[in-house]
């Protein structure tokens, strides 16, 4: 066999290096979610593991409002198997971006900051609010963000990555009064240990915490007003997709409209102790909530 000259070998090596860095890494990296579902029939959802939005069951399955509704939507889109990954709330969007999961179904609110990162579905159910868990009798008289902001002795807990963290700071609560935790277990533990005077959580999860027979001596602060910049906050939960998978998101939206019409969404919400008002969608759209950042 004739040996290649040094110059020719160098040229071939350069071509090989160029191809390695220029060509797609493989089918998986270039494949859209729509293509993946068509070829494999699988969908991987990301959960925070918080009742009632998305939880794992004793038999290794998954339950909760959003997984159940998502399953009813995607069955008609070619999804034959739904897999799941449970993680800290703050890891949901990074995991979506890195393709570890295909969709966030973890009780995520639509916010302006998130609209810049993901493609949201239409809101699932109606507007919801956050609650504050406090000691029984509410001895610190906490009924809103304003009460915490004006009392420097108070400490409030929240979940790292939760939308309500933005609201706490926007309502004027100094950062040194806010303690952030990776998950519900750590946050509730801080409440028990008197490290915080109030724990802000979405109302569904707050109700679930108080239903735990091991949690005694606490209650929901009622009333509790989320006033930020002079306006009471209303929150809309949705599924989150990668922006390049907006076509699959659009298909999910069409199926969601059908499930709203036939009462499926309402039934699932009420199954998990939500009111009919919580379950009934409004005319508010993801595009309206995201504005120019809608994808």
From TrEMBL:
Alphabetical list of Gene3D superfamilies matching this protein: Periplasmic binding protein-like II
UniProt entry tagged with the keyword Magnesium: no
Domain Solute-binding protein family 3/N-terminal: 42-276
GO biological-process terms attached to the record: ectoine transmembrane transport
Signal peptide segment: 1-30
InterPro entries: Ectoine_EhuB (IPR014337), Solute-binding_3/MltF_N (IPR001638)
Any GO MF annotation of the entry: ectoine binding
Pfam families: SBP_bac_3
Keywords for the protein's UniProt record, in alphabetical order: Plasmid, Signal
Name this polypeptide is given: Amino acid/amide ABC transporter substrate-binding protein
Organism: Paraburkholderia phenoliruptrix BR3459a
């Amino acid at each position: 066999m004739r040996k290649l000259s040094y110059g020719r070998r160098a040229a071939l090596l350069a071509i090989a290096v160029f191809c390695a860095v220029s060509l797609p890494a493989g089918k998986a990296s270039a494949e859209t979610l729509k293509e993946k579902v068509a070829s494999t029939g699988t969908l991987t959802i990301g959960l925070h593991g918080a009742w009632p939005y998305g939880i794992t069951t004793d038999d290794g399955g998954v339950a909760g409002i959003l997984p159940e509704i998502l399953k009813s939507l995607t069955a008609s889109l070619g999804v034959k198997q739904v897999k799941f990954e449970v993680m800290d709330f703050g890891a949901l969007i990074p995991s979506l971006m890195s393709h570890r999961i295909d969709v966030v179904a973890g009780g995520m609110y639509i916010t302006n900051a998130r609209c810049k990162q993901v493609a949201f579905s239409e809101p699932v159910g109606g507007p919801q609010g956050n609650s504050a868990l406090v000691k029984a009798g509410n001895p610190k008289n906490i009924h809103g963000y304003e009460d915490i902001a004006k009392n420097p002795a108070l400490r409030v807990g929240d979940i790292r990555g939760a939308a309500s963290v933005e609201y706490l700071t926007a309502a004027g609560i100094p950062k040194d009064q806010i303690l952030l935790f990776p998950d519900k277990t750590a946050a509730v533990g801080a409440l028990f240990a008197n490290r915080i005077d109030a724990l802000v959580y979405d109302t569904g999860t707050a109700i679930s915490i108080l239903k735990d027979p091991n949690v005694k001596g606490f209650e929901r602060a009622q009333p509790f007003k989320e006033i930020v910049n002079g306006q009471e906050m209303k929150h809309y939960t949705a599924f989150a997709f990668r922006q390049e998978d907006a076509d699959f998101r659009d298909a999910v939206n069409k199926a969601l409209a059908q499930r709203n019409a036939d009462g499926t969404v309402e039934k699932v919400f009420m199954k998990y102790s939500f009111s009919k008002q919580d379950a009934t969608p409004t005319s508010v759209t993801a595009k309206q909530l995201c504005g120019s950042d809608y994808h």
